[in-house]
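Troubleshooting entry. Yesterday's outputs looked truncated, so today I'm pasting the complete records for two proteins to confirm everything comes through intact. If either block looks cut off, that's the bug. Protein one:
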Amino acid sequence: MSPTAYLSRRSRTSAVTALACLAFAAACTQGVVGQPGTHANRTAPPSTSHTYLGIRVEPVAPTHAHALDPPVAGFLAASTAPDRIWIGSAHGLAWLDPDDGTTHLVDGKPGVGLAVAGHELYRAAWAGNDVSRYDISDGQAREVARAPAPSPLYIAVSAGGLWAADHDHGRLLRLDPRTLRITKRVTIGSGAGLGTAGMVWLGGHLWVVSKRDNSLYEVDGRTGRPVSRVDLGGPVGDDITLTHAGIWAEVDVNSDDHPVYCLVDPRRHQVVAHVNVREAANITKDTAWMIAAPIVVGEQLWIAVDRYLVRLDPDGGWKPDRVLELPTPITARFALSAFGAVWIYSAHPEPSVIRVDGAALA
């Protein structure tokens, strides 16, 4: 498959998670989850003398990296018909037109966590202690429901149901998809401190991070009952993501404020790889946990970290094998692959959103 073919705007999807689930299901049937696979463009020619992670860095041309100026910046989600990039933050909701880069503020209400299902957008507001639902059928976003909910950090929706992570109290909250009323509360994990965080759907089961006991739980998507637990081996970050390789979680395995990404095989219920994508010299106290979760670009896996895009090699145990450097200093926090580009939310030095054209990753 050529880069132009898999980055075509006509091959877009409305949700990265949906793509990942389909790809993962296909991988399961072939018995290749977490195992080596084919890798396109394995020997990209180096273009600078600068190295990162021991790899020659390739600079991204300024014509392929565009700094945007949305009214708010934060978590990113995509929807189609019409095409939109949604931006959720503690300071409001905005949308971005991927065709011309224009941005529009919807409201100034808090709500970082986003989930898209067809023509509906769900938001979770940890600081605001509520959840909300918007009609996005015309691309403008009209709030149609809002309900109180305790400390909902993230929200996840599928045919199996709608759940929010009650971050402060270590619970999952099952919500009525229309009214957003809480219909069930399920405690996940043990211990004290912050609890449930990132969630992904895989089939009829929901996988959720529990920060209290550094674990990844698989729960029944209807009842919320835990059916399996994976010990991640150290303090965990908030986010997880599902790709064709498995489930990725950020873990500080040495408890030294140098987190790495671990890959969990959900069929075997175990960690099968640890991947370091950051040089120690680049880590500060404020940015130690600011690494975007892996994204799938065509048939390749990339991670946005600091001002770099790092490709992971499935034939080399998912170790980095290619590094691109963006032309401006940023600290990547969230990333999204959609509409023929990679969209990155940077938290430092100033909140911003950067579009990287797919051609730069070819």
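Protein two, checking that the full record survives here as well:
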Amino acid sequence: MLFAWTCTRLTSQVPCFSGSELSSSSAVVTIPSSSLVVTSGDSYVFSVTSTKGSRSATATVTISTSALPLPAVSIQPVPAFVTVDSRVVLRGAAEQTGTLITI
């Protein structure tokens, strides 16, 4: 099975990268954050096409960027023992961190 990756910036339709960040033919691609040119409010359109023989399928996702601070998120501990008939309820909290992180 072969995989072909692409990425374009939504507003300008230009490639996201100038290098070989998406040259992998693997099902998973890891992109260092330093490779992205981030502008608040911009979006990236990532696509992957999987090919096997004469068949192919494509999946696409749009990722938007923001310069807003990300909150610190936590989930309270869950019970160590759960029965089949019980219901697990996750309770969480979010706090403003004050640190600007751009994704």
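Both blocks look complete. Sanity check on protein two: DSSP finds no helices and five strands in the chain.
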